[in-house]
Design a protein that fits this description.
The chain contains 5 helices and 8 strands, in the order ββαααβββαβαββ.
Length: 183
């Protein structure tokens, strides 16, 4: 898709330190840097290897399509003070064990780990999902050993549901229902 087909810039999420807008073509450089980071790739890619450029382009195309089709999707987040790319978060349609679900997704550059950015983005994305869309529940999942991601999910109100195998690897599945959301 071309930039003029991207969602309009009036959709924004503002947090204390970040500004989020629908993910689009203008985020390619930031996403490539994120996807090329071996530490990040170890948490996102089934093989643990840096994510290929083709997959980054496909992710952007899917995100743009989701925004156009559903009016929601992934946000790119930038530091309010500097404008630097700080990662992405939002919701996307996916499949877990053959069931269609809406997933909370997030990723930040490893240089920003343990600074609260993933939690800040994820909380804002959950708020957007439950306040701006009719979505009734979200899932989130991560590799069993990714304790940082599990803490993000829990701080957003998600509850551990069960272990599962996803992309051939052991994961944990968390769920949050609109009716159970606090704050």
């Amino acid at each position: 898709m071309k930039a003029e087909e991207e969602p309009k810039s009036q959709i924004r999420i503002d947090t204390e330190r970040l500004v989020g807008a629908p993910l689009g073509d203008s985020d390619f450089a930031g996403l490539r840097e994120l996807h090329s980071d071996p530490r990040v790739a170890a948490t996102l890619a089934a093989d643990g290897q840096p994510i290929p450029e083709r997959a980054t382009r496909e992710m952007i195309a899917r995100a743009v399509e989701d925004w156009c089709k559903f009016g929601c999707g992934l946000f790119s987040f930038h530091a309010r003070a500097t404008g630097a790319f700080a990662g992405y978060s939002g919701i996307k349609h996916t499949s877990v064990e053959g069931t269609d679900v809406i997933e909370l997704a997030y990723a930040v550059p490893s240089a920003l780990w343990r600074l609260g950015y993933a939690t800040e983005m994820a909380r804002a994305s959950v708020r957007f999902a439950f306040e701006q869309t009719p979505i009734r529940e979200l899932v989130a999942f991560t590799l069993t050993h990714n304790l940082g991601s599990r803490r993000v999910m829990e701080s957003c109100g998600f509850h551990y549901e069960r272990d599962l195998t996803h992309a051939g690897l052991p994961h944990v599945l968390y769920r949050l229902r609109r009716a159970n959301r606090t704050g």
